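User: For my dataset I need records formatted as: sequence, then structure tokens, nothing else. Please produce one.
Assistant:
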Amino acid sequence: MPLQGDLNWRYIPAIATTGALQMAIDTWLWHHSDRPCLRFYTWEPAAISLGYHQRQFPASWRSLGWQGQPLSLVRRPTGGRAVLHQGDLTYSIVVWGLGRSRHHLYRQLCQFLLKGWEALGYSLAFGHAALSAYGEQPVNCFATATAADITLLSGEKIIGSAQGWRGDRVLQHGSILLQPNRDLWQQVFGCAPHSLALPPPERVQDALLSAFAEQWHVTLTPEPLTHAEWQDVKRIATLVAGQTL
């Protein structure tokens, strides 16, 4: 089933950079992109992202480090709970004109994730907790699987997604938990992550790119950020980094 509207999407090649810059890129695309766009990225150095409305988190997070660098805290422009970005791959979609049902759009946009993982030999399913239950749950996004999240059939949550809306413009991004470090997870969340042997990020990204184009019958045109776009992004990143957490 094709998406409505523009079938020529902008694909922004993978970027590995700080959490503040990644959130600034997503924010700029959400506010200003003139075409629907898809991108994948990783966080360097590792970071913890907080949901837009999340105010409670352990004070110890402010002093954590990883591989000789501080573990930075950054606020996402989307909802949900805290995500540790280490050993994960993040996807990001900006689109508009697809209606106003949050639940329906989650289901619609996540189909490529199910399809891509199926091509890799894994059967996935949506979580079962109600979206409205988020307010009652722990700080860790991966501690529960709502209808916006994706799990293996055995129950392990491997993809947590969140949305932001501006009119009918939607930013949906999500963390795909691939190779989490057990010791760091224990420091941050006081529990162990999954210990599954999942494919490396590059292989997952390739499968998801193919699945997205096939699922939605769109052309993904590679187009890095321009110099002017980077200048705008860096200004937003300064604001993101300066937010009170």
